[in-house]
Amino acid sequence: MLDIKVLASGSTGNAYLVGDGKSRLLLDAGISMQRINAGCEWRISDISGALISHNHQDHSLAVEDLDRRGIKVYGPVHMAARERKIKALEPMQTVAIGTFDVVPFKVQHDIPCLGYKLQSVATGDQLVYVTDAAGMPYKFNNINYWLVEANYSIDILQKKIEEGMSTARANRVVNTHMAVEDLEAYFDALDTSMANEIWLCHLSDDNSDAEDFQQRIRAVTGAPVYIAERRCSYDSPRFINSLRGN
């Protein structure tokens, strides 16, 4: 069993904790160190590593602070070339971090960006994390946990264009983020019988409908679907127990 804890999700900042009872990883660090510390219940040293998807501030804000506190930070090659504090990850090459085997893979964004597949050697569970991507780049099988972007709806975006949204702005959304319709089609063509939890993250403030998105993905997967809220309380008993080894 894995526990996913949302520290922040959305255009103002993204950060998630994943624990397997032995190790925990931070997925993106686009919020202040104070908020990360609070989310970790001030046990920042228990984090085995931080995986950064890309260099935009809403995903990488706390990189320097994490490094200063001795947390190993991993990210795309182009980030590592600019910042020595970041350990470069080559796409499709497995790296062991704590009790997780991590496989990075490229996703389409406006700068180099990585998604991650995690497998816990402690539990055997697998998780896929994809954010800020125009679509799902690979077919992943036997995944138990999904933390994936559902940024906007094509229908909602079309209405916004009719109401005056610029074509340039709409095109950027389409080319750099994932529509719930595309995610719905992806899951519909996939065997999701192994899915224990699906978390939808990085929903747009203006172009999404959380309840509708949740219902859509639940309908095609049959799995429990959760929305990663922009701010989340730090009181998940299951997550806390996993860190204590219970």
Could you describe the 3D structure shown?
- The protein has 246 residues and is an alpha/beta fold.
- It has one domain: Metallo-beta-lactamase, Chain A.
- Helices cover 28% and strands 26% of the residues.
- It has 9 helices and 13 strands.
- It has helices at residues 33-39, 57-60, 63-68, 77-82, 154-162, 167-176, 180-188, 210-221, 237-243, and strands spanning 3-8, 15-19, 24-27, 47-51, 73-75, 86-88, 95-97, 100-107, 113-120, 126-130, 145-149, 197-201, 225-227.
- The strands form 2 sheets. Strands 7-8-9-10-11-12-13 form a 7-stranded mixed β-sheet, covered by helices on one side. A 6-stranded mixed β-sheet has the order 1-2-3-4-5-6.
- β8 (100-107) and β9 form a beta hairpin.
- α7 runs parallel beside α8 (210-221).
- It is globular and about 50 Å long.
- The N and C termini lie close together (11 Å).
Q: What is the structure about, briefly put?
A:
Helix content is 28%, strand content 26%. It is an alpha/beta fold and 246 residues long. It has a seven-stranded mixed sheet, with helices on one face. Strands 1-2-3-4-5-6 form a six-stranded mixed sheet.
Helix/sheet category: alpha/beta
What is the helix/strand order? Answer: EEEHEHHEHEEEEEEHHHEHEH
Q: In CATH terms, what is the fold-level topology? A: Metallo-beta-lactamase, Chain A
Number of helices: 9
Taking Cα atoms only, what radius of gyration do you get, to the nearest Å?
17 Å
Portion in helices = 25-40%
Average pLDDT across residues?
Answer: 91
Q: Which strand order does the major sheet show?
A: 7-8-9-10-11-12-13
Unreliably modeled segments:
231-246
Distance between the termini: 11 Å
The number of strands is 13
CATH architecture: 4-Layer Sandwich
Oligomeric assembly: single chain
